[in-house]
Design goal:
Number of strands: 11
Order of helices and strands: EHEHEEHEEEEEEEH
CATH topology: Jelly Rolls
CATH class: Mainly Beta
Strand content: 25-35%
Number of domains: 1
Distance between the termini: 25 Å
CATH superfamily: q2cbj1_9rhob like domain
Helix content: 10-25%
């Protein structure tokens, strides 16, 4: 699985402004984290949706435009923030893919904690503030809870980059 990890992805002032907004977002309870996990493990997380179904759905969407520019997003599919609550023991959620096709994804960690994202090959990407994981979220991966801070926060962006679009166009 190809992926890239970039530390200090955003300039400090802009990144800090995103982190300061976390408490202003409306968070929505989501039972389970991946598939039928709720029945098996009773996990939950909170989300704030910024963009879905081809339209902004959050009054905070505009604040993410510089981030989208840095990622060179051409076709935006979804942006959501995730809040994984603290648990006594670190829990890995079920492996899943965001969509059932190859596309680009960026996972921006908003805080540093002992949580991580695990890729299908077993690679673990630690949650470090202002670290971005660029990968194909059409491939299986999973998230975790955290034990050493109140919650793990990240922003998940699903999109198509210009070069990916060109690759797709050449298949026809």
């Amino acid at each position: 699985m190809k992926y890239e990890v970039i530390d200090n992805f955003l300039d400090e002032e802009y990144f800090d402004s995103l982190v300061c907004m976390v408490e202003k977002w409306e968070w929505y309870f989501q039972s389970g984290v991946a598939y039928e996990e709720v029945v098996k493990d009773n996990f939950f997380h909170m989300t704030h949706m910024f963009y879905r179904k081809n339209a902004p759905v959050s009054p905070h969407y505009e604040k993410l435009i510089p981030l989208l520019g840095k990622l060179e997003v051409e076709i935006l599919m979804r942006i959501k923030a995730n809040l994984y609550p603290n648990t006594e023991k670190l829990h890995e959620h079920q492996m899943h893919s965001d969509k059932n096709f190859s596309h680009s994804g960026a996972l921006l960690s908003l805080n540093t904690c002992d949580g991580y994202t695990k890729l299908k090959d077993g690679t673990k990407i630690d949650s470090i503030a202002n670290r971005v994981l660029l990968f194909d979220p059409g491939e299986e991966h999973c998230s975790t809870t955290t034990t050493n801070v109140p919650a793990r926060f990240n922003i998940n962006i699903n999109y198509i980059q210009p070069q990916k679009r060109l690759d797709i166009d050449h298949r026809f």
